[in-house]
Amino acid sequence: MSTYAIGDLQGCHDEFVALLEQLDFDPRHDHLWLAGDLVNRGPASLACLREVMALGEAATTVLGNHDLHLLAVARGGARENRKDTLSAILAAPDRERLLDWLQSRPLLMRRRAGEQDDTVMTHAGLLPHWSVEQAAGLAAEAESRLESERAGAFLEQMYGNAPACWRDDLDGIDRLRVIVNVFTRMRFIDAAGCLDFAAKEGLESGPAGFAPWFQFPRDDDPWLLFGHWAALQGETPARRVRAEALDTGCVWGNRLTALDLESGKRISVPSRQR
Q1: Which secondary structure element, helix H or strand E, spans residue 242, and what is its range?
Q2: What is the rounded distance in angstroms from the CA atom of residue 274 to the CA atom of residue 260?
Q3: What's 52's domain CATH number?
Q4: Domain that holds residue 80
Q5: Can you give the residue ranges of the Calcineurin-like phosphoesterase domain (predicted)?
Q6: Alpha carbon 205 to chain centroid, angstroms
Q7: Could you give the number of structural domains in the chain?
């Protein structure tokens, strides 16, 4: 039995199938952890969504910002962006079943192998100011809202860059927005844990006073798996925590990558995107 963590699919279905073949993946024995952003930008978002859902308990995925964008367009009144490739999902005969499944996915996954040996996956990373226990509790708050009767209203108000800093006394939509932004949009932060939303490229693009979240120390030592940041190309330079970048930019013409959680080996296939 093997467990593989895979970076952002973003509609790259052919590469996903090729990677599973490369892994000799057997859903009867093996398991996938997917770092979110199953959909958008690539050519086959509908096929990716159906493929992962069909794997059942053999695959677990966290929500990414593009997954939440799909839900916001379908159920929160948001508009599609010019570069979106979501129309096939929105027109699919099984769209409601797919959206229900996606909306029930977690923001954080955790595997415990002892008190001090946590493996944690989120789409964008983990704020160094949050313990794993706190982060799991905050993720559950947002997940509960997504599965409630107020999910539509939450999806309508989810977007926004403010507040940019976490405070324990935040409540209402401000609290939920920061939680979602940390788990799905975070790249650069400052020493106080405030997020910058403008810089999206490599390490050199960060504003003064900000650094990648994985360059700040933590009080605990979980193994952190994340996607989202394709410009890193799977690297986490000068990291001060155990962090593994999984998004290697398949949708941008690079590679789709899996990490074997038992051996630490990386396996990848080339992109077929232009």
Answers
A1: strand 242-245
A2: 27
A3: 3.60.21.10
A4: 3-270
A5: 2-82
A6: 21
A7: 1
